[in-house]
Amino acid sequence: MTSRSLPHLFRARSHLLLRSQIRNPKPSSLPLKPLQRFCSSDASPPPPPPPTTQTPKVKIAGGGGVNPSPLYSSLDADEVAKFASIAETWWDFEGPFKPLHLINPPRLSFIRSTFCRHFRRDPYCARPFEGLKFIDVGCGGGILSEPLARMGAMVTGIDAVEKNIKIARVHAGFDPLTSSIDYSCTTAEQLVRENKMFDAVLALEVIEHVADPSEFCKSLAALTAPNGATVISTINRSVRSYAAAIVAAEYLLKWIPRGTHEWSKFLSPEELVMIMRRSSISVRHMISCVYNYETGEWSLSDDTSVNFIAFGTKQG
Fold this sequence. Notes:
Layout lengths: L5 H4 L5 H9 L53 H8 L13 H21 L14 E5 L7 H6 L3 E5 L3 H11 L9 E3 L3 H6 L4 E7 L8 H11 E12 L3 H14 L16 H10 L2 E12 L4 E5 L5 E8 L2
Parallel strand pairs: 1-2, 1-4, 2-3, 4-5
Antiparallel strand pairs: 5-8, 6-7, 6-8
């Protein structure tokens, strides 16, 4: 990256344009390809920052029902505290969550297209997901839950940070189309114990923040109805992701607070596919979002070297 290209990273987008994109995401025009073997051509990644002490999984009282791990949650207490400290900034388009707001439109386009194909819905319908139950795991302030609700889905949003849920409820209340979202401060594991099931389960930028990705994925699978859909997005553990998500985003550009990500907790596409398969989720498609330094916008791509979204279906 040259010094001349850096100014493009700071190009601000109009709030009205961003809100329009989020409210009316265009169907993806990028052809979806079947999952292929992902082989990284990167050299061995540089050593990450000194590893922190692994936080024990949080013990949860109660039990009963089908549960991959009856006594524990995959929550990482340090990660929960980290996001609680910046919860008030979820709807600040120039705040710490600015990258998520910018990447939201192309990801919604992908989700809309794949879900319409999977559930055999009309992609050109304003509300194609009428009658379907979706859950947004790790919903934060609701930046994914709200557009899904506007597309007609019956949305449940859960998060372990109580501040996030309060902010999500207040913001959703401003729009009649999103006021029906069922927000709750709970965990995926707790809903599994309550025998909850959904047509689609989404967890975007969450799995790299949990203590046990395998247990977390088992919970997502348990929440997914037979022949339902599961979508997980995360950051690849590669040289490029270390440079982009940590060095650039946290230290150079200061888009997000330092320490938001731990490179050692990122997953490669191969690792996520393996974890999902062990949880009875068959990965059908994988795609990524790339940043264009000239236009200052994100778009869909087959290049998964920095981040990727995996779409899978539960084996019925």
